[in-house]
Design a protein that fits this description.
The chain is an alpha/beta fold. The chain is built from seven helices and seven strands; from the N terminus they run αββαβαβαβαβαβα.
């Protein structure tokens, strides 16, 4: 309910942010897709979601955010699901694979936490693991400007320009899904981060 309501009301409001979307045609429209984005603000999922308003996104959020009953209920309504950071969260992985099998879009932030908007942090290998197990493409995403809209420590958004860039999807080589190693997961994750940096 929350998600569909925001799909209706948010797009017109984006005009105030001089919101731009670049490379949207790179995102596959007929299959499950993993989107891997840089992370500089809690506003990132909102702007990426509006950029792909024709579809509904599902995204990981740190488990701690769900400990607040009201806020947890709201973000669940926006298709967020919890993940335990710093460890192999098998429940979160299974849910991702379920969504991808259904043809949904799953949004991940490989850095695992918010960065400074200048230098990308080292990424976790979970993106590569999900790509290998699902066989789905991974689309790099770069969000620019959200760190000025909702900076760290602020609760009230500011009106600042925002642009979301989508890059060409990355895939594991054909036939490598079932024999992929940790090295393959790491390499694919590195390729995705390179794609984000290029954007």
């Amino acid at each position: 309910m929350w998600y569909r309501a925001l799909q209706t009301f948010l797009p017109p409001l984006m005009l105030a942010f001089r919101f731009r979307v670049v490379g949207k045609e790179e995102v596959p429209t007929t299959q499950g897709v993993i989107l891997a984005a840089n992370h500089v603000s809690y506003a990132d999922p909102v702007f990426i979601g509006v950029a792909l308003v024709e579809r509904q996104l599902h995204f990981m959020a740190k488990e701690e955010l769900f400990r607040f009953p009201v806020f947890g209920a709201i973000i669940r309504g926006l298709h967020a699901f919890p993940v335990r950071r710093g460890e192999m969260d098998r429940a979160a992985i299974r849910w991702c694979l379920h969504l991808l099998e259904k043809g949904e879009i799953v949004l991940l932030f490989p850095e695992g936490t918010r960065g400074d908007g200048v230098v990308l942090k080292e990424a976790e290998s979970g993106v590569g693991l999900l790509a290998a197990r699902s066989g789905c493409p991974v689309g790099p995403v770069y969000v620019h400007g959200t760190d000025h809209v909702l900076p760290r420590g602020k609760r009230i958004p500011r009106i600042r320009p925002v642009t979301v860039y989508f890059g060409r999807p990355v895939r594991l080589e054909a036939g490598s899904f079932h024999k992929a190693s940790r090295w393959a997961y790491r390499r694919l994750t590195e390729q995705v981060m390179e794609g984000i940096a290029q954007l």
